[in-house]
Amino acid sequence: MKIGVLGSGMVGVAIATKLVKLGHEVKMGSRSATNEDGAKWVAATGKGASQGTFKDAAAFGELLFNCTSGSGSLPALESAGKDALGGKILVDIANPLDFSGGMPPRLSVVNDDSLGEQIQRAYPNVKVVKTLNTVNANLMVEPGLLKDATTMFLCGDDAASKGKVQEILKGWFGWQDTVDLGPIAMARGTEMYLALWVRLYGALQNPMFNVKLVR
Ligand SMILES: NC(=O)c1ccc[n+]([C@@H]2O[C@H](COP(=O)([O-])OP(=O)(O)OC[C@H]3O[C@@H](n4cnc5c(N)ncnc54)[C@H](OP(=O)(O)O)[C@@H]3O)[C@@H](O)[C@H]2O)c1
Question: Are 42 and 49 in contact (CB under 8 A)?
Fold first, then answer.
């Protein structure tokens, strides 16, 4: 499958690398078609890996991942453009973290709105599915790095797209326990969870942790 990964940070690299290992063709998108991190990833990954602008990656992919910073997500999608985004599934992994006041970061959108909803409102045809934003990049594609099976949440307005993303989470990435929280407005919950996540990270001094929902 052809997949567009918007973002060249550690999340973009983790997701894109796993997808290429699974045999997919992946184009990593950035503000610049020759972004240094993207170029390093292409050189290290080889066959199946390519880079381009956000627009190139969005046009290339039949399935898209948003791995851009919280403040960069709407600008990145704007530069990708409505035509390239089309009516595709966009797996949104971004968190609206604002580090301008130092650590711990604030959330730039909170309570009555979320970044996931802002993206969905800006691109009503795109099928936004919010997931994976509650764990470290390395765990996103390899939850088995933790000794216990833990839980991954997802939400989105389109049931069929959520079903496909659930298959991807389970079949491609190895998440056996997933919880569908409901519509994209539920992204408020998983984004606000970051307030706890950053404090757990501070307490544990290690990002390799996750919650397990016991029910
Ligand atoms: N790091 C983690 O383990 C982790 C875990 C869960 C969720 N997340 C979330 O996943 C997302 C990616 O995180 P990350 O750590 O990989 O990297 P990041 O530093 O948060 O984001 C890097 C990406 O954001 C793009 N970007 C930054 N400012 C932009 C702007 N003004 N306009 C357009 N694009 C802009 C960069 O574009 P260029 O390629 O052009 O430089 C780059 O591709 C974030 O939203 C983060 O909160 C991260």
Answer: yes
Whole-number Å distance between alpha carbons of 87 and 123: 9
Q: Does the C-beta of 163 come closer than 6 Å to ligand 1?
A: no
The tens digit of pLDDT for each residue in 39-83 reads 999 999 999 999 999 999 999 999 999 999 999 999 999 999 999
Q: Ligand 1: which residue has its CA nearest to atom 30?
A: 72
* Predicted model pTM: 0.99
So what's the pLDDT on residue 61? 99
Q: 115-122 vs 70-80: helix axis angle to the nearest 10?
A: 10
**Tokens 């006041």 appear where?**
101
Q: Strand runs (DSSP E) across the chain, as ranges?
A: 2-6, 25-30, 49-53, 63-66, 89-92, 97-98, 106-107, 127-131, 151-156, 177-182
DSSP string of 70-82? Answer: HHHHHHHHHHH-H
Span from the CA of 70 to the centroid of ligand 1 (angstroms): 7
Ligand 1 within 6 A of 210 CB? no
Q: Which residues, including other chains, have CB under 8 Å from residue 113's CB and lie 6 or more apart? A: 188
Quote the mean pLDDT of the chain: 98
